[in-house]
From TrEMBL:
Name of the protein: DNA 3'-5' helicase
Similarity comment text for this entry: Belongs to the helicase family. UvrD subfamily.
Catalytic activity: ATP + H2O = ADP + phosphate + H(+); Couples ATP hydrolysis with the unwinding of duplex DNA by translocating in the 3'-5' direction
UniProt cross-references to InterPro entries, sorted A to Z: DExx_box_DNA_helicase_dom_sf (IPR013986), DNA_helicase_UvrD-like_C (IPR014017), DNA_helicase_UvrD/REP (IPR000212), P-loop_NTPase (IPR027417), PDDEXK-like_dom_sf (IPR011604), PDDEXK_AddAB-type (IPR038726), UvrD-like_ATP-bd (IPR014016)
GO biological process terms on file: recombinational repair
Species this chain originates from: Candidatus Magasanikbacteria bacterium RIFOXYD2_FULL_41_14
Domain UvrD-like helicase C-terminal: 343-629
């Protein structure tokens, strides 16, 4: 339940069920509360089945929050409600029905860096001249990727683009061959860009400029052909890009009315959060689901045009402006009661954003969007001008410290919101100097962090001992920490002998270079480590080569001994290993040499390494875009100077032709300036009690900065005087010229917000092992047996999904079968025929989903792969003889609260027994057990506990049995938990979660456990 009573507008929005609804929800007006309460109302009061409700959000985090809040309102946790992002929804639909539009069975979705690498590898196939300068052939790859993505956001097919290029050719009176000297867009200039966007550019005589016409045609021909080839390369590699998930879903639902009908029947109720951030393709998807029932469908969209800030991602504010026209009988409800900010802040923000009229809903639809504070907060807005960036950071830090002390606040009650990451980097040193801990949202740059550079230096040494820069980096890193005097002696030896630094270190080992006692030990250790490194590199995959080096050198142990101080190095290593795992999964050649080529390409593509850190609490220093949906007591917005905020308008490197853009409602004002105003509005409305604005005259560079126009606009629209003249250098605060001390502060380790059985099991094995794995995130190597187990799990999941689809189609159910070779086997169960996919289809699924990683040798991998086929053949044979079952559930997820935290899990399979009860099944690939101790049973007992606690699971039927199915020999072990077992299960799980929350990680070593522990070589408790 919300922390405040629902107001009349919120109640009206929740109870509206007669046709489409547009909820205009201003900042802080409780839109998420309205969405989640509306879902609960539809299920609990209007008796709409939860499985018939689709709730769409824009990020996985937002979808997760919606799921959690709905779960808290529903007796069964809202398990059957589909809460999803647009792209996850598209993926779900395409994985089931993608074959209908020619997509591969098991497609992989590539991110932008992976797309860049794919284009880079196939660059010679593209017939590019204009967009592939000879001196820098990869220059325009990013621009092409963004252009292709925008095409898909606008649902522009390759055929439509090719037709556009052909029309340009037909419309031209004369085509003059393009001169060979004109190859780069820089030679064409802005005139060509404007012509390409559809503007006429005539010469003085009124005739078209034939040479420009030829260039426009050349550009259009290259782009349309490249777009067509790009899509073909994706499909040839069984890949889709991110935009394809919506693009092909819309294509599917447009071209296959039977499939559209399926999903219209599944989801007669659709709710869309942050509707103002939808692009054209996403809105078309929404309209398709509403097609034919525009006035009856339960369609609710929630948004605020004043908070539309993602145009750079293709979002179209026109969608929310167009909704009432597309759904003329829709109702509009405006939420204006704000539960976050003091009235002064709301007035400042509203008066400011009205400068975007008439391109706002308030002006277009005659709505009143002025927000009224429901709080009694006394809010303030302050502005300060400083001489330089260091002074500005110092001013922010001192205000944070003073407010924290005077008002007894936490670090998380403050935020510094920046227009760009570069501005954030200028603020951080001052906060660190004042010992203010900081956190960043979506930390990136880890692949260029010192720890990552150390890893790459190790790889270079594995490839070539005589890479002197790599030797120098490692010797002077925290890994070896060679004394300065010894480093100087080695450097002098290199100069005198004209040799490599590695040879100098060998001379230090033999005594030819007189090193200190410590230096000589380091030289011996370094040479031993690098020798092992080179040996490993000959036979082992790159990820294992690196792990062995980090372990042998003692670096992992150093990090684990002082995790609070080393948290950034730990995060950097996590980013490197994440990237190595991706590389290993995607490439047949996993050698060090192949990795180094891949890594260099990735850096060239712009990859920086990003991980979601869960370590530390402090003052968030965020970009405004990443602060959307958040709130804080006090907000600091620095660098309010011209050309920084508002930023300069950087047009897309390759603009879409106007003729291909679908958007009907074009703004009357400056599109970029209006977007920047909305961004500033979002920043202002994050604050509860106060806003601190600041600007400086000197941020480096030759010219002094001018105040942002937004400061003047705030003053004018609110009839106040905020800004004095910016002081010149030397006034108020003397410029700091010393190098700031930016050494990281100690970080408080934080525990997970959600738990799983795997975590419980790891803690039972050893709490110190749990700390290494789930708190510190120390990288580990995988194991071939786990890859094998995952392969069998996903194979059986997809096989049974296919079996369900076949029999649903046969029985006239919701899901049509994908168009594949018709199966012939069937099994008769009473008077019901069960259609079963062929054995070859099961084996083909196994081959397509084979996980190729972590086997210790080629022979080991070959044996596992053969064993898997044998296991599946036996599985198919036994079920064909004993009778197939259509599962009632596959990978059935659950979540519920334990000790105030979320506990999540997935049940491999749920079968319906002849007596109507259900059977919970967990697949095992380990050695079969005939006798089970309590801890052996615990996983299925947790599932039984969940199934009896959550109404959506208990509604499937009473539990008849719990089964471990051992795939290796086909045996099953069945049992049923007693009330005493379940009581003990709940007590065990709750006790462990509480210990984790209290950070009780007391080690419980024993020789057998330590022998198989991934962290044994860095653990001081090892036995």
């Amino acid at each position: 339940m919300p922390s405040y009573p629902l107001n009349p507008s919120q109640q009206e929005a929740i109870r509206h069920t007669s046709g489409p609804l547009l909820i205009v929800a201003g900042a802080g007006t409780g839109k998420t509360t309205v969405i989640t309460e509306k879902i609960a109302y539809l299920v609990n009061e209007k008796n709409i089945p939860a499985k018939n409700i689709l709730a769409l959000a824009f990020t996985e985090k937002a979808a997760g929050e919606m799921t959690d809040r709905v779960g808290a309102l529903m007796p069964d946790g809202g398990l059957d409600i589909t809460t999803s992002t647009f792209h996850s929804l598209g993926r779900r639909i395409l994985e089931t029905h993608g074959l209908e539009v020619g997509l591969p069975n098991n497609f992989k979705v590539l991110n932008e860096i992976e797309v860049w690498l794919l284009i880079r590898q196939n660059l010679e196939k593209f017939d590019l001249d204009y967009f592939r300068p000879l001196g820098n052939p990869t220059k325009f790859i990013h621009a092409l990727i963004k252009h292709f993505s925008r095409c898909k956001d606008e649902l522009i097919t390759p055929e439509k683009y090719l037709a556009h290029a052909e029309n340009l050719k037909l419309d031209s009176d004369t085509v003059i061959p393009v001169k060979t000297g004109i190859q780069s867009p820089s030679n064409v200039g802005k005139t060509l860009d404007s012509r390409f966007r559809g503007n006429d550019n005539k010469n003085d005589s009124g005739e078209g400029d034939n040479e420009s016409d030829a260039l426009i045609q050349k550009r259009a021909n290259e782009l349309s052909s490249a777009y067509h080839l790009y899509n073909q390369i994706l499909l040839d590699n069984d890949c889709l890009d991110f935009s394809d998930l919506i693009f092909y879903t819309v294509k599917l639902l447009r071209e296959r009315p039977n499939v559209l009908k399926i999903y219209q029947n599944i989801w007669p109720v659709v709710l869309v959060d942050e509707f103002q951030d939808t692009n054209w393709a996403q809105y078309e998807l929404i309209k398709l689901l509403a097609k034919g029932r525009e006035n009856a469908m339960q369609l609710t969209v929630v948004g605020d045009d004043d908070q539309s800030i993602y145009k750079f991602r293709g979002a179209s504010v026109a969608n929310i402006l167009q909704f009432s026209a597309d759904f003329p009988k829709s109702k509009q409800i405006v939420l204006t009661e704000n539960y976050r900010s003091g009235q002064t802040i709301l007035d400042y923000a509203h008066n400011f954003i009205k400068l975007n009229d008439p391109d706002r809903l308030e002006a277009k639809l005659g709505l009143d969007k002025k927000l009224t504070s429901a709080t009694n907060k006394t809010a303030t807005v302050k502005f300060e001008t400083l001489p330089n960036a260091a002074s500005e950071g110092q001013w922010i830090a001192k205000n944070i410290l003073e407010l924290k002390k005077n008002e007894n606040l936490e670090w998380g009650d403050f935020v510094v919101l920046c227009r760009t990451h570069q501005i954030a980097e200028q603020i951080l040193p001052a906060l660190l100097r004042h010992k203010i801990p900081t956190v960043s949202g979506g930390e990136s740059g880890y692949l260029r962090a010192p720890a990552a550079l150390n890893c790459q230096a190790a790889f270079k040494l594995a490839d070539n001992y005589h890479e002197s820069p790599a030797v120098y980096r490692l010797l002077n890193s925290v890994i070896y920490d060679l004394p300065y005097e010894d480093a100087s002696k080695l450097a002098l030896f290199v100069k005198r002998k004209a040799c490599s630094l590695y040879q100098a270190v060998k001379a230090g080992q033999t005594g030819e270079v007189k090193l200190s006692e410590a230096g000589e030990k380091i030289a011996v250790k370094f040479l031993a480590d690098t020798n092992k490194l080179a040996i490993d590199a000959k036979t082992e995959p790159a990820i294992k080569v690196l792990y062995n080096f980090l372990e042998n050198s003692g670096y992992l142990k150093k990090l684990a001994d002082y995790p609070e101080k080393n948290y950034r190095d730990i995060m950097a290593l996590q980013a490197v290993f994440d990237y190595l795992e991706k590389f290993q999964a995607d490439n047949p050649d996993t050698s060090v040499a192949a990795w180094m080529r891949y890594y260099e390409f990735a850096l060239e593509a712009g990859e920086t390494g990003e991980v979601e850190a869960n370590i530390g609490e402090g003052v968030p220093v965020l970009t405004i875009h990443s602060a959307k949906g958040l709130e804080f007591e006090y907000v600091f917005i620095p660098s309010l100077v011209d050309l920084r905020f508002p930023s300069t308008n950087r047009a897309e490197a390759i603009e879409l032709p106007t003729e291909l853009i679908n958007e009907k409602t074009l703004p009357e004002g400056d599109v970029h300036l209006e977007e920047e105003r909305r961004l500033f509005y979002v920043a202002l409305t994050r604050a509860k009690s106060g806003i601190f604005l600041s600007a400086a005259k000197d941020y480096g560079g030759a010219r002094e900065k001018k105040l942002s126009r937004f400061v003047a606009e705030l003053e004018k629209t609110n009839n106040v005087k905020l800004a004095e003249q910016i002081p010149s250098k030397g006034e108020k605060i003397v410029r700091e010229i010393h190098q700031p001390n930016t050494a990281p502060l100690d970080k408080q380790l934080t525990t997970p917000e959600s738990f799983s059985f795997s975590q419980i099991s790891t803690y039972q094995t050893c709490p110190w092992q749990y700390r290494f794995k789930y708190i510190l995130h120390i990288p580990t190597l995988g194991k071939g047996v786990f890859s094998f187990g995952h392969t069998l799990h996903i194979t059986l999941q997809k096989f049974y999904e296919r079996l369900i689809a076949l029999n649903s189609a046969h029985q006239g159910g919701l899901f049509d079968a994908p168009r594949v070779t018709p199966p012939t086997p069937s099994y008769q169960e009473g008077d019901k025929t069960i259609i079963v996919p062929k054995l070859e289809e099961l084996l083909e699924l196994y081959r397509a989903n084979w996980q190729d990683d972590w086997f210790y040798s080629a022979e080991n991998k070959k044996r596992y792969r053969a064993d898997g086929e044998t296991i599946l053949k036996n599985f198919y044979k036994v079920n064909s003889e004993q009778g197939w079952t259509i599962p009632a559930g596959l990978e059935t997820g659950f979540r519920f609260k334990v000790a105030g935290a979320e506990f999540k899990g997935q049940i491999d399979r749920i079968d319906k027994l002849p007596d109507g009860k259900i059977r919970l099944i967990d697949y095992k690939t380990g050695k079969p057990k005939t006798k089970l101790a309590f801890n052996d049973k615990l996983q299925l007992l947790v599932y039984q506990w969940a199934a009896t606690s959550i109404s959506a699971l208990s509604a499937m039927g009473e539990i008849g049995t719990l089964s471990y199915f051992y795939l290796t020999d086909g045996t099953e072990v069945d049992f049923m938990g007693t009330d005493k077992d379940l009581e003990k299960t709940a007590g065990t799980v709750e006790e462990i979660i509480k210990k984790i929350q209290n950070q009780d990680f007391t080690a419980t070593p024993d020789p057998e456990t330590c022998r198989y522990c991934d962290f044994k070589d860095i653990c001081e408790f090892r036995r």
